[in-house]
Amino acid sequence: NAGVTQTPKFQVLKTGQSMTLQCAQDMNHEYMSWYRQDPGMGLRLIHYSVGAGITDQGEVPNGYNVSRSTTEDFPLRLLSAAPSQTSVYFCASRLIGPYGYTFGSGTRLTVV
Amino acid sequence: AQKITQTQPGMFVQEKEAVTLDCTYDTSDQSYGLFWYKQPSSGEMIFLIYQGSYDEQNATEGRYSLNFQKARKSANLVISASQLGDSAMYFCAMREQGFGNEKLTFGTGTRLTIIP
After folding, report:
1. CA separation (Å) from A89 to A61, B46, B51, B84, B111?
2. Comparing C-alpha atoms, which of B36, B14, B22, B35 is closest to residue B87?
3. CA separation for the pair B25, A71 (Å, rounded)
4. Mind giving me the DSSP string for chain B?
5. CB B45 to CB A59 under 8 A?
6. Span B43-70, mean pLDDT?
7. Are residues B87 and B114 in contact, defined by beta-carbon separation less than 8 angstroms?
8. For A11-20, how does the pLDDT look when each residue is reduced to its tens digit (9 = 90+)?
9. How far apart, in whole angstroms, are the C-alpha atoms of residue B21 and residue B36?
10. Which residues of A touch B102 (CB under 8 A)?
11. Burial group, residue A88, by CB count within 10 angstroms (0-12, 13-18, 19+)
12. Which of A6, A32, A14 is nearest to A96 (CA)?
């Protein structure tokens, strides 16, 4: 099983550029989320989805968009990259119920 | 608002000793879940153990157990017989249950180093 697959693993952007971080899971999980991890901090929720066609904002949504057209995919779009968005981004998914999240391996993004 | 506090930024432990990583939480909800994740130097987040607020027994998964004290709002992770491969960052996290509540709140983590 592939689990949760994130691409790319590394990315360098210039300020103002846009890009999409890809996330796909093959476990038929209903719930998917995007988190960012900054030094000295735990992970913080950006956006999440409880099913295809349903998304909502998390703790730090500004500057990011998401969509969920299928159960498997949950891309994260950076609209106009800023240095403050330099971070490690994790996608995660889980089943409905009292279950933990399965995380992808992360995308390390640097905005210069 | 939910909050997770991990007061040990770093710990050094001798191999084969037991380790307790502290975690306290704050929530006004009665129904919630508590999680521990391991993050090795390679960067991935590995799910270790889960405890529901209504679970009467402490959760166990192999060498991992969760010492859940609801009245004190603590959810400490205990690793028995530590190994060199246990060296990593460990994060405690909480999610308030309820449909649509998907915010997993993380603590700032504890860096555990196992000494041979």
Report:
1. 13, 15, 26, 27, 20
2. B14
3. 32
4. --EEE---SEEEEETTS-EEE--EEE-S-SSEEEEEEEE-TT---EEEEEEETT-SS--EETTEEEEEETTTTEEEEEESS--GGG-EEEEEEEEE-STT----EE---EEEEEE-
5. no
6. 94
7. yes
8. 999 999 999 9
9. 10
10. 31, 33, 45, 48, 50, 56, 58
11. middle
12. A32
| Dist. CA B82–CA A43, nearest whole Å | 25
Residue corresponding to tokens 């004190």: B72
Is B59 within 8 Å of B92 (Cβ atoms)? no
**Residue A103 token pair:** 């995380």
Strands of chain A (E only): list them: 4-7, 10-13, 19-25, 31-37, 43-51, 54-57, 64-66, 76-78, 87-94, 102-103, 107-111
Average pLDDT, integer, range A94-103: 84
Residues 46-85 of B with CB under 8 A from A: 46-47, 50, 52
Average pLDDT of every residue of chain B: 93
